[in-house]
Fold each of these.
Amino acid sequence: MTENRSGRLEGMGLAEQANGTQPAEELSNGDALKLDLYFWLQALVMALVLLIVVFTLVGRIIGVEGSSMLPTLHHGDLLLLQSIGYTPKNGDVVVLTKEFDMVSDPIVKRVIAVGGQTVEIDYEAGCVRVDGQILDEPYLNEAMYPPPYDSITSVTVPEGSVFVMGDNRNHSSDSRYVSLGVVDTRYVLGRALWIVLPAGRFGGIH
């Protein structure tokens, strides 16, 4: 190494190459790339943890079977449910776990009335009344006809229970069916919030 400034710098450069180190600028670029990757991975892990917590503690994913909720829900739709902290309300689409007859899987229906309300079903007029008021039901698949089974046409819902019906009234076994009847809210698994699959039907449930 020479005594002039230029010689000293050249000597240091040779020493760095001999030790296998890289120039400071290249180290900075490499470190920046590693930091970017680290932060992206950290964000991904946090997002996955959040999804797991939401699905485990707040909601669930469940599939629709059958056509009783057409046109709102189709067979094979996957639903995101709100479970914890949910209280059934009129008009909500809910998933029930109450078994009746040969049905043991969860079923999806719409809440027509809650505890304390009186339901009257008028097949001649093709309407449902709750506490004397005709429901506005734009979600129905078609005009309602009397079901082929012995059905409940008038009932006052006990406190802590709900009266539910399918949107596809003519193809739905619901609270009109004596074997199911009004449903204790403890059988309500949750409220259906979103259709998550198939992708073409992704969106909120109204």
Note: The first strand starts at residue 59 and ends at 63.
Amino acid sequence: MKERGAILLVACYELGHQPLAVAWPAAFLEGRGYAPTVMDVSVEPFDAGKVAGARLVAISVPMHTALRLGVGVAEQVRALNPSCHVCFYGLYATLNADHLLATCADSVLGGEVEPQLVELVAGLERGEPTRRPGPGLAKLAFPRPSRSALPPLAKYAHLERDGRLELTGYVEASRGCKHRCRHCPIPPVYGGRFFVVPRDVVLADVRQLVAAGARHITFGDPDFLNGPGHALDVARALHAEFPDVTFDVTTKVEHLLRQRRRLPELAALGCAFVISAVESLSDTVLRHLDKGHTRADVVAALDLARAAGLVLRPTWVAFTPWTTLDDYREMLDFVGREDLVDHVDPVQYGIRLLVPPGSLLLKTPAMRPYLGGLVQEAFYYRWDHPDPRMDGLHAEVSAAVATAAERVEDAAVTFARVVELADAAAGAPSTRPASLAPVPDRRRPPRLTEPWFC
């Protein structure tokens, strides 16, 4: 299988980033003498020629959207190349292994997948039967990701800053997560473990991205501050070598509180913004999700970020079985009152709790009264809100923000429309001041051009 084209790595969607979940497996395989080809169906056409010559097609599915797209890719692969071995790998492959193996996959890999993928290739060469390993959780010796065969950065999400669009690279300084938020797909696979990527490997990846034109780096770690010493060491090294290159990170509210003394340094090193999964302002919802923070913590973290000179971009799970209509309207009040309208991608106002197979939520008594059956072909469990107004509002908001995204509508215009929908659902006239037309040339905080989808 060492001939070029015998192994095809397929990316389906990675939040608009150049797919690291393909670049790293490619590097591991190349280190063992293989010559994989790659394809990213999120930015380039499906290439039947690459599929026809492959003996193994490995499809990366690190998120729900990628999995749904990946199943369609697998069907096309089967039609073109029936004898090909189809492997799914990534978080959502592990969570949905039983269904994938029963329908469209010959093998499924999860966790730290690269050694498993190398072993799968070697086993296929030897003609050995495919086994079903559990998630790989061994510490790896990471090579520099192999990006040369991937589509160029210009095809992916950009940083929008001061009216300019800048090429953006995506790296990881750690993988996995030590936290166990119940709605997250990582804990069922990693079980509270995380692994750091050596600083020199991260910097080597940054160098090749900067050489390709990147002026901004996204650290895609599930939580950049899981290992704060390592994270700051990487950030310092990046700034020392590329002082004009900025970056963004994702971290929990509780880490913003615990690491408050480090936040000013993070800003000084070039952190353009921090994404934090606030999820809700309801302490009831936060407790059911086991988020590790409270509403008061959110307010404190926002104040700390501002004092440090950091832009905080909160994300939300706006619809859960426990979110009341009053909770939803309070979230909107908070966004408006705290001048966060331009800090929130409007798609966030329509995010509904996703409960995939394997989710920790399936084990919680609080979820059971609302839980329906598994929609196998869509890879989630149904749930219904006890207040029918909330399910109706979700449908209306989802349609509104999707239309707004297609139009590239001003976030403030979309926000005002969502507020009107929420007030109408409550059957009460708005208590908010009359909306003013947004100032089109106002200075907005930096953001990535790809909205946050799961």
Note: The longest strand covers residues 271-279.
Amino acid sequence: MKRYSIVKGLALLISLTMILAACSTADAEPDPEPSATTTAPADEPTATTAAPAPADTAAPVEEGPRILNVVIPTDPVAMNPFPETAGNRATVHVAMYLPLIDVDNNQAIHSEILESWDVSSDATTITLKVRDGIEWSDGVAVTSADVSLALRLHLDSRISTRAGRLGGVSGVQAYTDGEADSISGITTPDDSTVVITLDLPDAAWLPNWASLTRLNSMWPAHILGDVPALDIPEHEFFETFPVVNGAYKFVQYVPDQ
């Protein structure tokens, strides 16, 4: 499973079998008084393991996790992803939450959450299929409800500065104007399927969405699904991040160290 590692990102608590490959961020210039966040391995992360050393030279394996501290050059405004996930806090989020969809090193669309993504011949309907076997750290399965929630929040211009980048989904205006309780262009026929309907043909919609890798974090619908959109920016979930689906879980944020 693809994992994100941060050189200028956050303090991580990692297991001995976890290897972090260097990946730089360019969101901020170095600061002489950095801040730090700490995350820890999720309950059952998928990890990249190093090749075992020869039996006669292998060192004893220590029990428990080790702490790796990596600093954030400047303080984020807040850890809540709304209204904005860019900058240092996005660096933290991608360590804890798998993006819904992104592009790989060859610029091809890629997803650890989705099994498939199909665009209709008239480029007005996008059908997403959620991969089986992915769970949140509390054991609840990741389903189409989680994907739908992430899309609804990212498309809501009242709380999201990314809404304009993903425009064109049917029913968004009626939803944000308070004329509808949901976005008509986002439906979930079953637990593994999400259907996105666009107002006009747009063959670039899916690639554009995938290109927003760090802005594509998803959130647990079984915890946040019933929270009114306008309450999301101040919700306590984003103070402790108690449930994740990525490699790490949140431990501590220490500003102004």
Note: The CA atoms of residues 102 and 210 lie 4 Å apart.
